[in-house]
Design brief:
With about 450 residues, the chain is α+β, with helices and mostly antiparallel strands. The protein is built from 13 helices and 14 strands. α2 crosses α9, α5 packs across α6 and α7 packs parallel to α8. The chain is globular, with a radius of gyration of 22 Å. The structure holds zinc ion (ZN).
Length: about 450
């Protein structure tokens, strides 16, 4: 998603207002927590030096979405757009060209968007084909979107196949409301892969993507920004898993350590499709185990949070004692554990682990070599790593590399966001447009030195 300064170029004014409101709310909440602070501050540790070389490539996955009003004769008709861009950064090129003036992020973004086909989804009052409501049109289009999304021209494995592989990992214990419950259907359904039917007399279509339950948040009478946000976060994370699975099926997993994967936002799935998080976690652990069997090191996957409670908290504690002597020295980190998060960041008395239902990774506070504060997320790649009980980093062997990579990518001008990271290095970026020969390009980049 665009970073702050870019907003004006892409978002309707409504969006800016929304985001100001969100920020104001966070500021109010923050004050409550900061009272009585000073004690219990974390003790940041120096980032251990990495004894292996940085990966040669960084694959950044970054989505954006917007909603526009359309004229179709009905009031308030809207259509949503989603774009998920993946960009390959060549770290060697960054080295070679780092002296050059950074590219204007807005300009870069414009070029990037011009070449990327956004996916459109019906919003309120937009009814397609034979559907009986905008909601059902949305459901059908969402299925088609994942079904038609071919990441690679030569490969033809559809995004829906990766999605349905994850759907098969979903426990059968929780049937959901029939998607036609708004129309009076009282059935509960277990959504399966492909196209099925509701068990009631009307036998209406159930799509595998109905299991995401995104449609339950669909609004017939107003903006569907939240719904679009959920689809976008699913698509971004699905694309990560999809690419890894493509590497696997092509016998290229052994090369994957040459690539770091960076995604926009936390390593989590929020809202209606949250169950997908556990499935992604299981799949990442499986893929990582396979990489390890081949003698490789852990996958290098980083989520970068550009806003929210953790970003605010990191900023708060860093300058809490003394604004001139920050708590975090450059190149120091802190891995908040469950107790710390519940006591200091997201207050909770619950015995359940923070983010147990939503996260497939955990937070890392890191201050880069140039003093930028980054709230990164690192994934749980085996059961040993799948814990918030400890701040001990020895079970996360990629942490030194993560820190070094962030040092390299983040400039102090653009902290806490992925798009600026990509934009700042636009001269070394290859946009991987979905539907083109993405895997071929990747394979070519990976095989170059062999
Ligand atoms: Zn039904």
């Amino acid at each position: 998603m665009p970073y702050e300064g870019e907003f004006a170029a892409y978002r309707p004014l409504q969006r800016i207002a929304d985001s100001d409101q969100v920020r104001a709310l966070l500021t109010r909440a923050k004050r409550v927590r900061v009272d009585g602070a000073g004690e219990g501050l974390p003790k940041p540790l120096d980032a251990p030096p990495s004894d292996v070389a940085l990966p040669e490539l960084v694959l950044a996955i970054d989505g954006s979405n917007a909603e526009v009003k359309v004229t179709n004769g009905y009031p308030g008709a809207r259509v949503g757009y989603i774009t998920v861009a993946s960009v390959l950064l060549n770290l060697k090129l960054i080295d070679a060209l780092d002296e050059q003036r950074p590219v204007d992020p807005v300009k870069f973004r414009t070029t990037e968007e011009a070449a990327t086909l956004p996916a459109a989804l019906p919003g309120s009052n937009v009814v397609t084909r034979e559907h009986i409501s905008a909601r059902d049109s949305f459901r059908a289009e969402l299925y088609d979107l994942f079904h038609d999304a071919i990441v690679d021209d030569d490969d033809h494995v559809r995004l829906i196949e990766t999605y349905e592989a994850l759907l098969r990992l979903k426990p059968d214990t929780k049937p959901q409301r029939c998607p036609y419950s708004y129309d009076g259907c009282g059935e509960s359904v277990l959504v399966r892969t492909g196209l099925t039917e509701c068990g009631c007399q009307k036998r209406r279509a159930i799509f595998s993507t109905d299991a995401l339950r995104v449609h339950e948040g669909f609004r017939d009478d107003s903006s569907n920004g939240e719904v679009l946000g959920e689809v976008m976060q699913v698509w971004e994370r699905l694309l990560l898993v999809h690419l890894l699975r493509c590497f696997e099926s092509r016998g290229m997993l052994s090369k994957v350590e040459k690539i770091a994967f960076i995604i926009d936002g936390p390593l989590a799935i929020f809202g209606h499709p949250a169950w997908l998080s556990a499935a992604i976690s299981t799949e990442l652990k499986r893929l990582n185990a396979k990489v390890a069997q081949g003698g490789g090191s852990d996958l290098l996957i980083i989520g970068i949070e550009k806003g929210g409670t953790f970003v605010e908290h990191f900023a708060d504690i860093d300058i809490m004692v003394d604004e001139d002597t920050p708590l975090f020295a450059n190149r120091s980190y802190f891995l908040p554990d469950d107790g710390y998060i519940k006591k200091r960041i997201i207050y909770s008395n619950s015995g359940k682990r923070y983010g147990a239902d939503t996260y497939f990774g955990r937070k890392l506070f890191y201050k880069t070599a140039n003093g930028s504060r980054i709230v990164a997320n690192i994934p749980f790649l085996d059961d040993d790593q799948d814990t918030l009980d400890t701040s001990d980093v020895s079970r996360y062997p990629q942490l030194p590399l993560v820190c070094e990579l962030l040092d390299k990518l983040v400039s102090s001008r653009f902290e806490n966001a992925l798009t600026p990271i990509v934009s700042a290095h636009a001269h070394a970026a290859i946009p991987l447009h979905l539907g083109e020969k993405v895997l071929k390009q990747l394979a070519a980049a990976l095989m170059k030195d062999d």
